[in-house]
Amino acid sequence: MNKEILFRIKRKLERLGDKSIGEAGTKEAFINPLISALGWDVSDFDEVKLEYKATKKDTPVDYALMDGSMNPKLFIEAKQLGLNLDDHKWIAQILAYCSMAGVKWALLTDGNHYKLYNTTADARLEEKLFFELKIKDLTEDNVDKALNLLNLLTKENFEGDGPDAPWEDYFLINKVKKTLKKLIDDKDESLLKAINKTTKLGRATIINSLNKLKIKIEKVYPTQIPLQIKEKKESVRKLKKGDYAFKKPEGVKLLNDTFEVKTWKDLLVNSAEKLIKYNPDAFNKLPDSDIMRTVFGGTFLTKNKSLLRTSHQLSNGSFLEIDIGANSIVRVIKKRLLKGCGYKETDIEIFLKN
């Protein structure tokens, strides 16, 4: 998908104005073109099932986007253009559809307003929302962010893990944000003690200062702050296949080269340096390229150091983001650096400490 497609849909919405076209017209004019732009063939019944029912007793959902094994990966519930999608009955409706069919991702839309939900998230209804955007609000300044979000829903992306990895980072970081805000608002004793330890100020002075502070913690995305999990016990979280959290690397085999590493940062930096040596022409094209862009408009590799939180300068002069977790590091190497240099994900093997 590219921004011209989104602006084309925006212009159609603006020409329509306040006219009502009904749900069928909304699908035909606005929703179908966007689904097609994401790489899904709306005319292929095996790929996009319309009025889908998991069982005969179920209420049909407007669109079910299927994988190669004919399993639904994403449900899309369409509403008439202009309908209030913030009404909880519409949200509850599509979440119920997904729950009955065992589908993780749900998109609610009226052709202009798009809201993506993780239906399986262990959270309150409103906290299941991953992102929302309105086509009419798009500008040259924010269209790239909208593209990054919508591109999570491409057919190609769902052939892998879909939006799973960005969601995990987003959900955990915003959980930290919520906890921090509560500590500040409640004048939590643990927070007061931590401030006292650093500043040596008295309790009353700290409380008075917190009351005067106007701290607003914006909605946080994974590219904005690091999340460092120091708890090392695997019992904290059930690890799934391919999950490198709470583990340590000790070696890497990259193509025909095997080398030792002590940290995930070492693994990332050394892998990048090896790829610079193997294919310098391809690697030199990667900084600030589309393949290195993050979901929310940032980048993992750039020529501009100021774009990164914590950078490491590579031998070719580019800057690599190193303030990311183990899982993200592995994904960056496999899906961005290796792919961008013309290699396969299987061209790297990571050895973990026991």
Question: How would you describe this protein?
Answer:
With 354 residues, this protein is α+β, with helices and mostly antiparallel strands. It folds into three domains: 3-162, Alpha-Beta Complex (tt1808, chain A); 166-222, no CATH class; 249-352, no CATH class. It contains eleven helices and twelve strands. It has helices at 3-16, 22-37, 88-101, 143-150, 155-158, 164-186, 189-199, 203-212, 264-278, 280-283, 326-340; strands at 48-52, 61-66, 72-78, 105-109, 113-118, 129-134, 249-254, 257-260, 301-302, 311-313, 319-321, 348-352. The strands form three sheets. Strands 1-2-3-4-5-6 form a six-stranded mixed sheet. The longest helix is centred in the middle third of the chain and has 23 residues, at 164-186. The radius of gyration is 23 Å and the shape is globular. It starts with a helix and ends with a strand. Mean pLDDT is 85; it is low at 220-241.
